[in-house]
Design a protein that fits this description.
The complex is a heterotrimer of chains A (314), B (294) and C (331). Chain B is an all-alpha fold. Chain B contains twelve helices and no strands. The chains are: A mainly alpha (314), B mainly alpha (294), C alpha/beta (331).
């Protein structure tokens, strides 16, 4: 287990490093000169050069990269030459919206997916099971931003019980919760529908395993066999999917924040791209990517902790 | 496939005995429903080349935000553009982006997956790790990064969606190929000297084709969703070409006046995605009976 | 535990989606007796076993009577049957590699049964589980109890499965191909162990297999099944020595030749077992039988010649002096 953990940790570190190279290179190679963008096409070469000097964009590629990564390691994401704000502080600030949004979305997704998925599996041969499966298919097909727009239309415009968007800040806890309710619900439904399918198929598959028959032959009822033997086994594939889902949830949040006008990481990212604030884009993308890699790492570790077959193999 | 033909009689009896063989009607229904929806989208796109009620890009200030009527079946938007015409032409963009994106994913992912399956660790490990890292960049994020340098276009969208799905095809191909490589008939083929590209193309690929076809259908659904999200965010096909995603984004500003404007494009997206997903499921059941009901 | 005399099966019919796969079989498994049920795959053996356990999969139904301790098990609700399964009647499965929950320590899997039927405390059940592990002759019972299935070999796992089955001293043990998936070297040990334990417990054993020598080694009585019917029944030695039904003779011939002369062509029964529902009318074996004629268009009854307990369902049974010849004929 320890050997596995260390090995996986090394892979994580290498992946993070590779991702940082990728992000940096990608953004550095993109056409579009920040100085040019700020000063316009009529700028004099001297003014451009001066601004590049100030941004540091005229220094060699590797030097800039090392500078940036060195900063990242110590938690310094640099200062945006455009807005003059600390990129790291901005990101942390926005995470205050995005992280609660994602976590509550995930929680809702689990609340939807686990009971309904198990039910759909247990009742897979009945009308109820078919209806539940069809529902999850519909849930997957509905684009989350569309669902968001529809919910806003119903709850904010027609019924006027919830805000249509925006965020009041965490000082007003009730208001913040209200602002996050619909976005989290949208994320939860979208991810829950996908997760439900995995839960269902995992449970259906496990219930056909021989050891379930052994459990039944011992005298366990169907529901006892389900709760004592099937669910834990079914959890293994579901955990894997859960990790991947957290990653998609992160991206889902980028879209949903824009639907609801929530001042989170995703909304900031799009604004920065619009303003060509490349250093902030770079920092944000790096944080999102690192989060995905970190989640995958955690999933793998949990996966190994749950499954004794993998645990002893190391 | 050979395994079914060579299976001892007990195998067939077992399927019946354990009751896993479901009535065939069921998967047929999934496939038929999916294929119907998909054909509907394809026909819509084809139709849009031949005929639309109006020019979808024609601005008509005298007829903005009109409700559905006999002249404009689903009404017009804030520029007075006909909704039906925009929906029809939108199907084109959706399909075009989907086809190109899935082609990119498969064309890059499948060879990489085969390469990673050949077994040599020094080649398979790096390939898989690179795929893992690419996997950490979802389509929308990639498209946004590309848009930071180039102007957002249909091309940046397609490339981003395509590249983001390469790891899916890569991993699937590798897993499928590893399984096929362990099977007896491949061992037999190896024993009389088949290896390398010939082994992969003649023996392995045909046996994972079913997997890949199913994945293509499912990936198509993902591509449609991603394209819609990108257009919605303003990072997809630029105006004036109508896309379902941007229609939704524009409708959002007018849903107090005309809430139905936000319904039609969303419905179009949802039905297309549903169609490709159902088709994928139906194909999976039809092509691989072992997975039926899962 | 209820005082049980033995297991009586009367006119058991098992239908798979409406198609009969077991066509009204009857037999009696006396207390403490050991009976073999033999036949090729697809002849209804496993379905019979699952029907006795009340564990038929969805779409498969059983009718008739399965009497244990005066109750017809087929009449019991699933809830009532849960109290019987593992307690009065237990089962050992074919596939030890998949028969155990991979995420649960084997000791707990054995203890579960005890806690369920005996209401034992966690600690008492765990202690008893270690004893049971010792009884099935696994090394280091204490440590083994804490192991996960993947840490054990196939033979060791099958011993665990046996320990689970015997945990509550069942009156009847049903073993469905318990050695088929094991290495040849381990098979004999496993059979001997099962024989010993069943004897010690005074339980009845129904041993299902396609392997005639396996039955011969530990059973007293033999049922031969084909096409969902019992085609021959008698004590092992007699049936084995002089089969009356041509199918039994064919089975024996294939086994005997296989064992005595590795170089000669393997004796086989011509054709293969038909798919479910595709068996011929009349005698189910007549499309593969060398002795079949028009008389076989009617269903033969399972009858015994006067003064004998051996029953065979054949219009043209082999007389004792013919059996050897018949064996050669089909070779």
């Amino acid at each position: 287990m320890l050997i596995y953990f260390v090995r996986r940790l090394v892979i994580l570190a290498v992946s993070l490093l590779a991702a940082s190279v990728l992000v940096f290179t990608l953004l550095a190679l993109l056409p579009g000169d920040q100085a040019q963008a700020m000063l316009g096409v009529n700028a004099t070469p001297e003014a451009l050069e001066a601004l590049r000097e100030q941004f540091g964009t005229n220094r060699p590629f590797t030097e800039r990269y090392l500078d940036w990564v060195g900063g990242l390691v110590s938690g310094d994401f640099g200062t945006s030459p455009l807005s003059g704000v600390s990129v790291g502080a901005e990101i942390v600030d926005k995470l205050g919206v995005t992280v609660p949004l994602i976590l509550s979305g995930m929680a809702l997704a689990l609340l939807i997916a686990v009971p309904l998925g198990v039910l759909a599996a247990v009742k897979s041969r009945t009308l109820l099971g078919t209806v539940l499966s069809a529902l999850s298919q519909v849930g997957i097909a509905v684009p989350s931003f569309w669902l968001g727009i529809l919910l806003i239309t119903v709850f904010a415009v027609k019924l006027q019980v919830l805000p249509s968007g925006g965020f009041t800040g965490w000082e007003d806890l009730g208001g913040a919760a209200q602002s996050l309710l619909l976005p989290a619900l949208v994320l939860g439904v979208a991810q829950g529908a996908i997760l439900m399918r995995y839960v269902r198929s995992a449970v259906v598959e496990v219930m056909q395993e021989d050891f379930i028959q052994t459990a039944r032959a011992k005298g366990l009822s169907r529901s006892q066999a389900l709760t004592r033997h099937a669910l834990r086994n079914a959890a293994i594939p579901v955990i894997t999917v859960l990790g991947l889902q957290l990653a998609t949830l992160l991206i889902g949040a980028v879209v949903i924040e824009n639907v609801f006008g929530l001042p989170g990481l995703g909304r900031m990212l799009l604004q920065d791209v619009g303003n060509r604030d490349l250093l902030k884009v770079q920092g944000t993308v790096m944080v999102l990517t690192a989060a995905v890699l970190l989640i995958n790492f955690l999933v793998d570790v949990v996966y190994h902790a749950v499954d004794p077959r993998l645990r002893s193999k190391a | 496939m050979t395994s079914v033909a060579d299976a001892p009689p007990e195998a067939t009896a077992d399927v019946v005995a354990t009751g896993t063989g479901k009535p065939h009607r069921r998967w047929n229904l999934t496939l038929v429903a999916g294929a119907t929806l998909v054909s509907l989208v394809v026909l819509t796109a084809v139709l849009s080349f031949l005929w639309t009620p109006y020019d979808p890009t024609r601005v008509n200030p005298a007829q903005t935000l009109v409700p559905p009527s006999s002249t404009h079946w689903l009404g017009t938007d804030h520029f007075g553009r006909d909704i039906v015409s925009q929906l029809l032409v939108g199907a084109r963009t959706t399909l075009f982006v989907g086809v190109v994106a899935v082609t990119i994913s498969a064309a890059v992912g499948v060879p990489l997956g085969l390469l990673a399956a050949t077994g040599r660790r020094w080649i398979s490990e790096p390939v898989m790790r690179v795929l893992d890292i690419v996997f950490a960049f979802p389509a929308i994020l990639l498209a946004i990064i590309l848009a930071a340098g180039f102007n957002a276009s249909t091309l940046t969208g397609m490339i981003a969606i395509g590249v983001a799905n390469v790891p899916v095809f890569g991993r699937l191909t590798r897993a499928g190929a590893l399984q096929v490589l362990q099977s007896d008939f491949v061992l037999a083929a190896r024993s009389y000297g088949r290896r390398g590209v010939v082994l992969m193309v003649r023996y392995v690929l045909p046996n994972i084709a079913a997997l890949l076809i199913v994945q293509a259908s499912v990936s198509f659904a993902h591509a449609v969703l991603a394209e819609a999200a990108l257009s919605y965010l303003g990072y997809g096909t630029p105006p004036p070409t109508p896309t379902w995603g941007r229609m939704l984004q524009e409708a959002q500003n007018y849903f107090v006046v005309q809430p139905m404007l936000a319904v039609w494009p969303g419905l179009a997206i949802a039905l297309s995605v549903l169609g490709f997903n159902l088709m994928g499921d139906g194909l999976r059941d039809a092509l691989d009976p072992r997975l039926r009901g899962r | 535990m209820t005082e049980v005399s033995g297991l009586v099966v009367e006119d058991l019919v098992v239908e798979v989606h409406g198609t009969p796969a077991v066509k009204g079989i009857s037999f009696e498994l006396g207390r403490g007796s050991r009976m073999g049920l033999i036949g090729e795959s697809g002849c209804g053996k496993s379905l019979t076993a699952l029907a006795l356990m009340g564990l038929l999969p969805h779409g498969v139904t059983a009718s008739g009577r399965v009497l244990l301790g005066g109750r017809n098990l087929l009449d019991l609700s699933d809830r009532e049957m849960c109290a019987v399964r593992g307690n009065d009647i237990a089962m050992v499965f074919q596939e030890p590699m998949t028969a155990l929950n991979p995420l649960m320590r084997v000791g707990n899997q054995i203890a579960e049964s005890l806690r369920l039927h005996r209401g034992m405390s966690r600690a008492a059940a765990a202690a008893r589980a270690v004893e049971l592990i010792e009884r099935v002759q696994l090394p280091e019972p204490d440590r083994t109890a804490r192991r996960y299935p993947h840490q054990l070999s196939g033979g060791q796992r099958q011993r665990v499965v046996l320990a689970i089955a015997l945990a509550c001293d069942p009156a009847v043990l049903v073993a469905d191909e318990p050695t088929t998936a094991l290495d040849v070297t381990v098979q004999a040990e496993m059979l001997r162990l099962m024989d010993t334990l069943v004897r010690e417990e005074g339980a009845s054993l129904l041993l299902i297999t396609h392997d005639l020598p396996v039955v011969a080694s530990i059973c007293e009585e033999l049922l031969v099944m084909y096409g969902g019917t019992i085609v021959e029944h008698g004590d092992v030695a007699t049936v084995f020595d002089s089969p009356r039904h041509p199918y039994t003779a064919g089975l024996k011939a294939s086994t005997v030749l296989e064992r005595t002369d590795g170089n000669s062509r393997l004796a086989t029964i011509p054709g293969r077992v038909p798919a479910l529902g595709a068996f011929p009318g009349g005698c189910v074996y007549r499309n593969r039988c060398p002795r079949a004629d028009d008389a076989c268009r009617t269903v033969p009854l399972l009858t015994a010649p006067p003064g004998s307990r051996r029953r065979a369902a054949c219009h043209h049974p082999i007389e004792s002096d013919q059996s050897l010849e018949s064996g050669k004929a089909s070779a």
